[in-house]
Every structure is written in C-alpha cells, then in structure tokens.
From TrEMBL:
Signal peptide: none
Name the record gives this protein: ABC-type multidrug transport system, ATPase component
Keywords of the record: ATP-binding, Nucleotide-binding, Transport
InterPro entries, per database record: AAA+_ATPase (IPR003593), ABC_transporter-like_ATP-bd (IPR003439), ABC_transporter-like_CS (IPR017871), P-loop_NTPase (IPR027417)
GO molecular function: ATP binding; ATP hydrolysis activity
Length: 295
C-alpha cells in the first residue's frame, strides 16, 4: 500500500501559496511530516483527507484517485484533525457508538463489541461513561484515535496530535500510535521533531509550501553528521555570529546562548564538534528558508 502525491499545488484566495509543487511517496508505517507553523502541513493533510481541493497535481492511494474518488478514500480513512470539537456532555461510549453508526456499522451488537474493543485499545474503557468535556488533553487525543480507528482504516492522518500534551500523556500517545502504525499508513503531521524521531520510519520536511527533504530519519542524519559544531556565546554576540557562520539553531541555557552551526570544515574560534541529531537535520533544512529558530 502506498500514497503517491505528485506535483501538488495550492494557492489560497488571499495569494498565499500553501503548497508549491509537492511530490511525496508515503509507504506503509509511520510517516512524519515535519514543518514549522504555516509550512502547509494542515493544507496537505486536509487535501489528502478529501476535505479541500488542490489547484494542481494528483494524489493516489493504492490506485484510487484521491482528488476525484473522494467517497472511496473516506471509506478507508481515519482522521484526527488539529482542532477537533467534542460534545462535552456526551460520554465516550455513546459518541463512539454514534460514529460507528455513521460509518455504516448498522448491527447493534457488532457496534457494541467494536466500541468496547476500541475503548480498551486506547485505555479509556474505565472512563467510558464520563462526559468528553471532563477529559484531559491526553484522554481527548486518545479518544480522537479511537474515533479515527472506527471502520478499520488503511490510511490514518493525525494532525499535530501531541501539541499541549504533558510528557507522560505524550508517551502513552506515542505507544498507541506505534501500535497502529504496523499495518496501515499513518501520517503524523507535527512541528515537534521528537515525535518523528521516536515514531517514524520515514519522514519529510516542508517549509513555506515546499518539500525540502524526504527519506528515512537516518538518511537525514547522514547528511549533517560531522558538520555540526556548537559553542556557548553571550546573547549580545548573536548577530555577529549569524553573519560569520551558518547558525542553524540557538538554545538559551542558563542565560547563555548555545549555538549550533553547520560547517563543512571545523570553524575553529572555540567551536566544538557535536553529534548530530534529528533536530539538526530539521533546522539545517529550515534555516535555508527562514531565519534560525531559538528553541
Ligand atoms: P501548517 O499546518 O503547517 O501550520 P497551514 O497549511 O495551516 O500550515 O497554512 C499554510 C499557509 O496557508 C499559512 O501561511 C496559512 O496562513 C495559510 N492558510 C491556511 N489556511 C488558509 C485559508 N483558509 N485561507 C488563506 N490562507 C490560509
């Protein structure tokens, strides 16, 4: 199973080019789509999810023309959007039953069994009678996954799922996602590099509507390995360093700025070589399009 995106472009009526000739092949397993806010991730996710049209290009899911044959895609799709509204007074069990009914599961006992198994799977069975409005952020996201899984989708899209989750909730969510990623295509759109590092076997980086990189995280790492140097400087020196070096990211640590620069040769001047990580890969690509980011 494969999702093939070819030459996809989208310009909004206000003139913003949200997608600029994107071509991507997404295989089975967890796929991380990384990009800063405004990169075009949601536009791409919503287009794949048949919720909006592109101006140009094509998307094919195992031979199905996604942009034309929307109904066939919807039957195979599970979608957890970025902002997903919940009816606060309805409990999880009733809501899932309702969603299953809408997705065409007419048999009541079949639905009951499905709802119970999904609630167990996302570890919400004991909270199934609680109103959705009382759920924590992590519980809401796990419920979101349960509703996306109704109907056994072969393509699952999750848009910025870990934003706002605390570390333990994030961990639970990671475990859940990696379980379902085994037999389906799961596209995880995020600006959090750690999400992709932990979960994804394949990835892409987009920024300002353009595809900057696609491949395996280790391919990305190989591109920057041996080229990353670090140095701690005073905040006031930053502008000068930006002029003299290719600064890819800066981090404030105990009042000092820890700089990371990319360089083919050792830059000297007190810089030390540093082991590259996926964040360096991300910032190396992003910094070619936008100003270095302080993290
Ligand atoms: P991301 O999900 O990566 O944050 P989006 O796809 O939401 O990015 O947005 C990409 C760009 O398109 C941004 O500049 C955003 O402001 C713009 N944009 C998104 N939706 C609309 C819309 N409905 N109308 C006009 N501009 C939009």
């Amino acid at each position: 199973m494969e999702l093939i995106i070819q030459n996809l472009s989208k310009t909004y009526s206000n003139g913003v080019k949200a997608l600029n000739d994107i071509s991507l092949t997404i295989p089975q397993g967890m796929f991380g789509l990384l990009g800063p806010n405004g990169a075009g991730k949601s536009t791409l996710m919503r287009t794949i999810a048949t919720l909006q049209d592109a101006d140009e290009g094509s998307i094919s899911l195992d031979g199905i023309d996604v942009l034309q044959d929307k109904q066939s895609v919807r039957e195979r799709l599970g979608y957890l959007p970025q902002d997903f509204g919940l009816y606060p007074r309805i409990n999880a069990e009733t809501m899932l039953d309702h969603i299953a009914q809408m997705k065409g599961i007419g048999n009541k006992s079949e639905r009951k069994e499905l709802v119970a198994s999904l609630l167990n799977r996302v570890n919400l069975y004991k909270d199934r009678k609680k109103g959705l409005g009382t759920y924590s952020g992590g519980m809401r996201q796990r419920f979101g996954i349960a509703q996306a899984l109704v109907g056994n989708p072969s393509l699952i899209i999750v848009d910025e799922p870990t934003a706002g989750l605390d570390p333990s909730e994030r961990n639970r969510f990671y475990n859940l996602l990696s379980e379902i990623g085994e037999n389906t295509i799961v596209i995880l759109s995020t600006h959090i590099v750690e999400d992709v590092n932990t979960l994804c076997s394949n990835m892409a980086i987009i920024c300002m509507g353009e595809l900057l990189m696609q491949g395996k995280p280790k391919d990305g790492l190989a591109m920057v390995q041996g080229k990353i140097y670090k140095k701690s400087i005073d905040k006031s020196e930053l502008d000068q360093y930006r002029q003299d070096y290719h600064v890819i990211s800066t981090k404030l640590i105990e009042g000092k700025l820890s700089l990371r620069v990319e360089s083919e040769a050792a830059p000297g001047n007190g810089f030390e070589p540093s082991q590259a990580d996926l964040e360096d890969v991300y910032f190396s690509f992003i910094s070619k399009k936008v100003d270095p980011i302080t993290i």
